[in-house]
Amino acid sequence: MASSTNLRLCVLFIFFAVGCVCMQDEQLHNHHGPLFTFGDSLVDTGNNNYINTRRIAQANYPPYGQTFFKYPSGRWSDGRVLPDFFAEYADLPWILPYLHPGNKRYVYGTNFASGGAGALHETNQGLVMSLKTQARNFKKVERILRKQLGRTGVNTILSKGVYLIWIGTNDYSVYASDSKLFSSYSLEKYVDLVIGNLSSVIEEIHKKGGRKFVVINLWSPNHIPLVQEEAVASQGRDARLGQLNHLVELHNGQLYKELQRLTTKLKGFRYSYADSYKVVEEIASNPAKYGFKDVKVACCGSGKLRGIQSCGGQDTLKEYQLCENPKEHLFFDSNHGSDKGYQILAEMIWNGDLNTSRPINVKSLFQS
Ligand SMILES: *[C@@H]1O[C@H](CO)[C@@H](O)[C@H](O)[C@H]1NC(C)=O
Ligand SMILES: *[C@@H]1O[C@H](CO)[C@@H](O)[C@H](O)[C@H]1NC(C)=O
Q: In this structure, are residues 44 and 113 in contact, taking their beta carbons and an 8 Å threshold?
């Protein structure tokens, strides 16, 4: 009696286990590969809600999220950010942030990004998850997937996966404000460190089976309300804007060169270099064409350009202004895009021509 129950349970279990594996396989064949995201507040979908950043890098209070989710999800936007749009275009379900307690399955990918993070471990150290920490978390996920799917299964998934990386802004703003740690470094040498660390994370992901990378370059500081507000306030006496511009130019040039170098070095390595610098330049010169009324003034914050970071009034600055229609603004707060802004950026690099994504666009990379 007992043994026949055991047998039945066992058969049921085998049936269930096989059923699960087949179903997962089938689901994956119907979709593009998973999406794994690494980076800072430009792509964080809520990881910082679960770590103690001492409030310097959180967006889990109103009016963040007001347009799309109708609640503050932890994204620095009135709605979605770039990986949300890519997941949608790739027919993937919503992808949870890595630290979300409900995140147990990783077959569609996950998001490791952390607001305030840099490619250098020292950038906002102790408050955020640096790129290094994000790579360590990716390896944890790889081990979990390996247990669930076996060696062949995990290799298939990870090689079909797309790895989205957008990082560097915080490294450069730390350097340009007060870089006690790296003050002896020239701009060129500092950029080498940032690119070197970014590149070694790409190599680590490649070692675990990752092949397809979307790497986004940095926006021009000339279009960021936060930077412009400071430049206006200092009436040009501050050398910060010039320095930031130089750093971003060096970074973007080096980044592209590094991707070309990796192509010759790493087996099966493919990439799309997404030129967000050019896209923002294009939008800023033709706002009406993209449906924007204002590309200079942010929707939420204080100061002339709402470039002072006070959106939501959670920090020392309680007073802030909020626009009526975030859709009309490229920037939602002092240094982050609006839902609409990110949507246009996402479309332009998903379907991009050689001006915006080289050598292939994000769509072709997903499909390849
Ligand atoms: C990465 O950055 C660290 C400082 O955080 C530096 O010591 C190291 O040399 C960098 N690595 C590369 C490969 O550039
Ligand atoms: C790049 O953009 C310019 C101006 O918008 C356009 O004329 C040109 O055809 C584009 N180049 C490619 C390779 O798509």
A: yes
